[in-house]
Amino acid sequence: MTAVTVTPEEVRAAIAEGTGTDGPGLFAEIKGKLRHYLYWSEEWGYDLAALWVMQSYIASRLPSVFYLHFSGSKGKGKTTALDVLSALTGGLNASNVSVAALVHWLADHPCGAVLADEFDAVKDAERDSALASIARDGYTLGKPYLRWDPAKKQLDACPTFGAKAFGFRGAVDDALEDRGFTIPLPTTALKGREGLRLVARNMDRRFGDLPLRLPKWATRIIKEWTPPIYDGDEWLSQVEAVVGDLSGSSRESQLSVVVLAVADAVGVDVTDSLRAALGLRREVAEANTDIGIEDARDVVEEIIARTGTLTKEAEFYVIRQKDFADALNARRKERHERLLTSPQIAKLRNDLGIDPAWLTHPVNRTTWNIPKKEWERRQGVANMANMANMHGDADNVSHVSHVSQGAPEAPSGPVPEESHLGPTLADRALANARREGSLAPDPSLSSPPNGHGEVVAWKIKGRGSLLVYSDGAVIDRRTGEIVERVRVGLIPVGGST
Length: 497
Known about the structure:
Shape: globular
CATH class of the largest domain: Alpha Beta
């Protein structure tokens, strides 16, 4: 595996010359352009992003590709990053294209790069579905996207394989996160003269003939480069020497193999950057455990107790995200744990159930405006979930979509397919109640009275829902029939049970 160390002086020289078509020179030039227009918090991000750009030109020679992800609130630089990467690859920005245009472009550009901002925002149902399918299948060969053409009365098949990069308002989609690396974005914007300079640069981006020289390099590499024997002992030894034993994570193994293969084709050494990127992936996985969520919830409660509402009459808890992140990281620092990054904070915010509609950004400072009643209602469920953690997870438990400390009205209209409170939290709440005998099947209960009492929960079952009443009746909303009788104890309700 050829190793080339690229120095800052070489980056400046490559930018000044702008004539080379050798791999290391182009790699240095791309990194220089990325640094010129983008401000990121981790140096390894520039290495992997530059490698991703070059990967997009030789994807046809690879068995798999790795994706790039950007996560953060407005003003963090997601859109700018995707625009720069699109300009360097000639890729399709699929954020606002129709399904027909997307399919035709993919058919005309096999292995072409696809980028999309705000991937988690609902825009057009048909387009969103198509793009999601292409994103989930497009990291390996042989998974075309099939679409029925009503005019031709036949199935259209287009290739999906190729490099992809996505921006997310909230946390990165779990399935897509497994297919690549999330580039950490800075928690605070570049300030002062340098911040202004960065803005000015991006108003007039100049890439010269770099996007023209990259295909020339790719044409030569596709012909001349001999890919490694991926399952050969020699190659596997090189991979293990870089990333260690990955036998426990097939996805990390796949990502490592493809990154090192592209680096081999380019002729550069990115081993340190790959190790750092893999380390962040593991940190994110650790932060997504229940311990991380419980820590996050405790921090929110502490901030609420310390600051209260904006005014006595206000109906919202107002929390600055930076205050939340600082307090959470202070806890981790005391325990000698690595501090959480912006993507991890965004993931925990999502796990806490902080609705994107509750976010505001005064002076580019992300602020949570949490409705008091909604937060207090959720804490009732959280308390049950804490007890459930002592007993393990439940198997085959329906989602609880509403547990109230008051006496809510029965939901009307279409029932959502997923829990409003978050499936993991809600599942555990119901699991705990069942295990403790407080919400367990009890055939000995007599038939409920006509009034049934108050609705204390409702859970999803297929496309319908079951209402749980305080007197123990579980009623199918569609038929009005009692399908189960349970004992209600731990679920907090307004009246007696």
